[in-house]
Amino acid sequence: MSTYQRGTAMAGAAVELVLAVLLVPLASVAAGLIVGTLPGPAPAPFAAVLFVQGVLVLAGVVALCGGRLSALRALGLGRPRVRDIGRGLKLLLAVFAVNVVFRALLWLVLPDAVVAQMERLMDVGGLVVGGVTPVLVVALSLFIGFYEELLARGVILQRAMRLLPGAALPVAVSSLLFGLGHLYQGVIGVAQTALVGAVFAVGVLRWQSLWPAILAHGLLNAVSLLVLTNI
User: Fold this and answer.
1) Domain segments of the chain: what residues?
2) Phi–psi pair at 208, nearest 5 degrees
3) pLDDT the model gives residue 184
């Protein structure tokens, strides 16, 4: 590849990275507007907004991939394998372990901040599950895990790998961006989510597949929502 071609490829990757980062906030605003115009109770269930947001994010990812299945497979969305279930459970256990250590250390330093963040998470969880059955909570959690992993560990991580040397820096950048996408959880939530994103990113790079991370992410969301809201 010539210097010009390499520069063009990197410029394209940079543009796609920026577009991918902007995709979630744009989809969030658009989803709120779309759901707000639909007939039904006011205000509309937050779960409906999340679902529409996910559909818009998926549409954006497909657009970034030029609508090509080969491009989606290159992101790690190949054929699911039975072994992905075991790998997903391993990632889930790793995430639980990281969260336990993170919260234990934080509790020793900033116990009040930990309590405040838990209350914030419970409020957010209540919004998500309000008027939604446990079965739909699990289904929505898996869907969120699917589109967030496709975006964060698919598009964003892969584009970062093209732009930055090695693997550690792309993992750090993509995980930080993933954490910042959860700014509504506060600074502690951003840090914790970034750590979780780093665990998922390591799994994706190790196994060259998004499916274990998608499964782990979806189950993590479901367990967290069901526990926080005592469903």
Assistant:
1) 3-228
2) 55, 40
3) 84
